[in-house]
TrEMBL record:
Residues 674-740 form the Mechanosensitive ion channel MscS domain. Residues 48-74, 843-908 are annotated as: Disordered. It is a multi-pass membrane protein. Residues 207-263 form the DUF3772 domain. Residues 864-877 have a biased composition (Basic and acidic residues). Residues 1-46 form the signal peptide. This is Uncharacterized protein. Belongs to the MscS (TC 1.A.23) family. GO terms for cellular component: plasma membrane. It is found in: Cell membrane. Residues 749-831 form the Mechanosensitive ion channel MscS C-terminal domain. It comes from Brevirhabdus pacifica. Keywords: Cell membrane, Membrane, Signal, Transmembrane, Transmembrane helix. The chain crosses the membrane at residues 283-300, 321-341, 361-380, 401-421, 433-453, 474-494, 500-518, 539-563, 591-608, 629-652, 658-687.
């Protein structure tokens, strides 16, 4: 069995265990991500095994030594020192460069590392690296052992940490060591020496573990460098050109021979009487499983499509989620059928080594075909509302077929790579077989890139393309470039490099499409939860979940493009170590601790604020502004304490950030002084409370109610319901009028004018009765009525009264005016209006029939001379002759009763 079969079969079986349980459709989502990575890594391993099989056998690979040998171990050590191969046979494996026997993981040993075993392991690893003859697979296994040792050494570095901390505190209590020439008490000196000796003894295990950790880390780096160099050499190795006709005949002969060999293996196995008896004994079970598998392969897709059609006929909220879950059956059920058929073949025992190698990757190949078909149908759906990419129906159909054929191409390549590895094809034969697959894949990928880059957009051409459209166009152009470059490289002879470009591109497109489908699924699920599609599209939570899914897809993309699992684990190990700031190392664990503690402190602060605001303060005599100040102050103190506790729990030493604090101080002095000024002003506002929430204030020409006082600014709601944000520094340094500071009492002034000749005392008495009768006016101080003076048209009075609540100033003034109008009408007091005398220079034109000049009228020259010069002021009340002419016209004074007014109709 090939390396691919040995690697893929357990993962594939695990996938089916997840899919076959209840609710497996939803569990299959992470499985699909995993299988995408397995497809790339499995095919790469098959190709790598094939390339290894074609190497000459003059240089025998050196495997890692055996650590699980008998107690004496002398023979094994001697063999390892001589560079011998430790053989670990794997049934069905035809790949030279045998795997080493793994030693027991050191993590299973005691807490204290066995440094003797480690020294032996490290020595043999360094010798294997220096010799450079070990196979890549053996180096990977050796690296895994060293990584286990390194993890144990990292844990051992914290040995006696509590004891070391206590000893250092004890030494600090004794004070600093005496300088040269100074002495200290003998008891203190003796005690200091004892504690220093104990400290050295306690630190020894940690120092030894750190030294071993550095050694293991260095060996791992050397192995990684060696493996990367081999990978780069394999990619850039110039092989035989598949266009050479000399290689076509051997390639055809090799593939024909492989097929005939598999057939002969099946015929030979079936001809054995024992196999026939076993098949006859298991015939009922075989027939049942065959029928189930055939039904799942042939009919399951039609069943799922029927259910989806029924759901689409009755759309409702959550239908898209159900359709997505059902559509997974189009992939899972046929693969389950294929898996059952392969189990039947294995149960019959009619396949040999080569047939087993091909049969083991058939489910993976089927997954490639069905998965590509499913992604194409879901991404470029015939339903425009479900389509992720805006395409015309014709281009969407072409895209779906291109995706399906790319799946077939990738499946054929997996089978050919597995067959080449198991049959040990020559390098020219592999080049010829792979070239056809690479050319077909390049053509299909070229067409798909054209669809993405030159799609018909629904928006008008004059509008600028959106950011998403520009990304898709750029992606399409990149796909086109790779689809052209990969076959050309294969034609020249760089077959490995061509495959390393083409097939990861196909898998990457599938991964991007899958991420888009998962993001759409998240939005649909959130729409069901909040019961609204519009709210779900504009919500932040689906975006955050999609971002998390994108981060989770990054390791899968790295594996697709050739990264090893060990590379990812190494990157995670480096990330887990954290980064250094001064003398403080901050790790992800510390960051998580900080976030968790701070969030808990923040929630506790809000809980205390809510309890005090709603349960405690209402029972006190503190005014509203004071309550708000207390609640805000508790919030600031609670958040500050939460931050301090979180920093302490995370183990961050703030003293090491002195340089950062100094730089921050300089920044505050220059660029952040306004922000700090507003912050300090906000604290002063909360303490002195010249302005509180709910106050009616006027500042800088803005009048309204204070709605919120934050750290930096204050929000004022004006009377026309607009919000004005005022910096706190303006409220402290500027002039502020607060109409409700301390109390709500305010004064109202109502001016009143009466006609000349009215009894002023009577007016004063009436106004006094009106204002005293109003319930909003305070009796003490007593409201007053003042006779202000004689105006141009009236005698002017003023009502001045103190209101209980100045917020009712305008309603009170309006009610007083209503009362005054009603009472004046009852008392016969006249409210005058402005009077003007109009003097007509030629009143005779207003008389009937007076169109001409009367007798004795002055000549025209005198009339013209009597007119005031243009630009000179006309006496008050004098009307121009033009205006008089307009007034003299009957049509200007009156209108016929039956004639409608067009202007009036238009205005109405």
């Amino acid at each position: 069995m090939s390396v691919v079969s040995a690697t893929m079969r357990p993962a594939f079986a695990g996938c089916w265990r997840n899919l076959c349980v209840p609710g497996g459709a939803f569990r299959a989502l992470p499985v699909i991500l995993l299988v995408l990575a397995l497809l790339s890594s499995g095919a790469a391993m098959a190709q790598q095994s094939g390339s290894t099989a074609g190497q000459p056998q003059s240089e025998a690979p050196v495997a890692a030594p055996v650590e699980g040998a008998p107690a004496d171990g002398a023979a094994a050590d001697a063999a390892a020192a001589d560079g011998a191969i430790v053989d670990t046979p794997v049934p069905g494996t035809a790949v030279p460069g045998l795997l080493p026997v793994l030693e027991p993981s050191p993590s299973q040993a005691a807490d204290t590392p066995d440094y003797a075993r480690w020294e032996a392991t490290a020595t043999r690893a360094e010798e294997a690296i220096q010799a450079g003859r070990a196979s890549t697979v053996a180096l990977e296994e050796l690296r895994a052992q060293i990584a286990d040792w390194r993890a144990q050494f990292q844990s051992a570095q914290d040995a006696n940490a509590a004891r070391i901390r206590t000893l250092r505190q004890q030494i600090d209590v004794l004070g600093p060591e005496p300088k040269e020439g100074e002495t200290e008490a003998p008891e203190i000196a003796r005690r200091r020496a004892e504690l220093n000796s104990q400290l050295s003894t306690a630190q020894a295990p940690g120092i030894r573990a750190e030294e071993a950790y550095r050694q293991a880390d260095g060996i791992i780096r050397e192995i990684d460098r060696l493996v990367r160099e081999r990978q780069a050499d394999a990619l850039l190795e110039l092989g035989s050109s598949p266009l050479n006709p000399r290689h076509w005949g051997p390639a055809l002969e090799a593939i024909t021979q492989s097929v005939m060999t598999i057939q002969s293996e099946v015929a030979s196995a079936w001809g054995r009487p024992a196999q026939q008896r076993e098949a006859n004994d298991n015939l009922p079970r075989i027939l049942i499983f065959f029928a189930i598998g055939a039904l799942l392969i042939l009919r399951s897709r039609r069943w799922v499509e029927t259910l989806i059609t029924r759901l689409q006929a009755r759309p409702r909220l959550g239908t898209s989620v159900a359709i997505f879950a059902l559509s997974l059956g189009q992939v899972g059920l046929p693969i389950l059928g294929i898996y059952l058929l392969t189990r039947i073949v294995y149960a019959l025992g009619i396949v040999g080594l080569r047939g087993d190698a091909v049969l083991s990757v058939l489910p993976i190949a089927a997954l490639a075909i069905l998965g590509a078909t499913w992604i194409g149908r879901m991404t470029l759906s015939s339903d425009l509302s479900s389509r992720l990419v805006d395409l015309t129906p014709e281009r969407a159909w072409q895209g779906r077929w291109s995706a399906t054929l790319l799946g077939w191409t990738y499946a054929v390549w997996i089978v050919l790579a597995t067959l080449a590895a198991s049959e040990n094809y020559s390098e020219p034969t592999r080049a010829v077989l792979n070239f056809g697959v690479l050319v077909v894949g390049g053509l299909l990928l070229f067409r798909l890139g054209q669809i993405l880059a030159n799609r018909t957009r629904p928006e008008p051409a004059e509008e600028e393309p959106s950011y998403r459209d520009r990304l898709l166009t750029l992606l399409g152009r990149g796909v086109i470039a790779i689809s052209i470059l990969a076959p050309l490289l294969a034609a020249v002879g760089f077959g490995m490099f061509s495959a390393a470009l083409l097939f990861p591109t196909i898998l990457t497109l599938g991964l991007l499409a899958l991420m888009g489908l998962l993001q759409k699924l998240v939005v649909d699920i959130y729409a069901v939860l909040v019961r609204g599609e519009d709210r779900a599209r504009d919500a932040l939570i689906p975006v955050l979940i999609g971002f998390a899914l994108s981060l989770a897809a990054l390791p899968v993309a790295a594996l697709i493009w050739g990264a090893r699992v060990s590379d990812l684990t190494e990157l995670w190990a480096r990330f887990s170590e954290g980064f250094q700031i001064g003398e403080t190392r901050i790790s992800p664990t510390d960051f998580v601790t900080f976030v968790v503690v701070f969030v808990l402190g923040y929630l506790a602060t809000r809980l205390v604020q809510g309890t005090i605001r709603n349960s405690v303060l209402p029972k006190t005599k503190i005014d509203v502004g004071g309550r708000n100040a207390i609640v805000a102050g508790l919030g600031y103190v609670g958040i500050f304490l939460a931050a301090v506790v979180a920093i302490t729990m995370a183990g961050i030493d703030l003293s090491s950030l002195a340089i950062v604090a100094g730089a921050l101080s300089v920044g505050i002095g220059f660029g952040l002084q306004n922000i700090v000024s507003n912050f300090v002003s906000g604290i002063i506002l909360l303490i002195e409370r010249p302005v509180s929430e709910g106050d009616w204030i006027e500042v800088g020409g803005t009048m309204g109610y204070v709605r919120a006082i934050s750290v930096r600014s204050t929000r004022i709601e004006t009377f026309d319901r607009t919000d004005v944000i005022v910096p706190n520094a303006d409220l402290i340094s500027g002039t502020v009028t607060n109409y409700t500071l301390g109390n709500l009492i305010g004064r109202v002034i109502v001016p009143v004018g009466v006609a000349y000749g009215t009894d002023t005392r009577k007016v004063e008495k009436v106004l006094q009765e009106i204002v005293q009768a109003h319930p909003m006016v305070l009796a003490n101080p007593r409201p007053g009525v003042l006779f202000q003076g004689f105006g141009a048209d009236s005698m002017d009075f003023e009502i001045r009264a103190i209101l209980r609540d100045v917020n009712f100033l305008l309603p009170t003034k309006s009610e007083l005016n209503h009362a005054i109008a009603k009472r004046f009408a009852e008392e016969g007091i006249e409210i005058p209006f402005a009077q003007r005398d109009v003097w007509l220079r030629n009143p005779e034109v207003l008389q009937p029939g007076g169109g001409g000049a009367p007798a004795g009228a002055p000549p025209a020259e005198e009339e013209q001379a009597s007119k005031p010069e243009e630009g000179t002021a006309r006496p008050e009340g004098e009307m121009s002759s033009d205006v008089a002419d307009e007034i003299a016209r009957p049509s200007a004074l009156t209108a016929a009763p039956d004639t409608p007014d067009p202007a009036g109709e238009k205005s109405q």
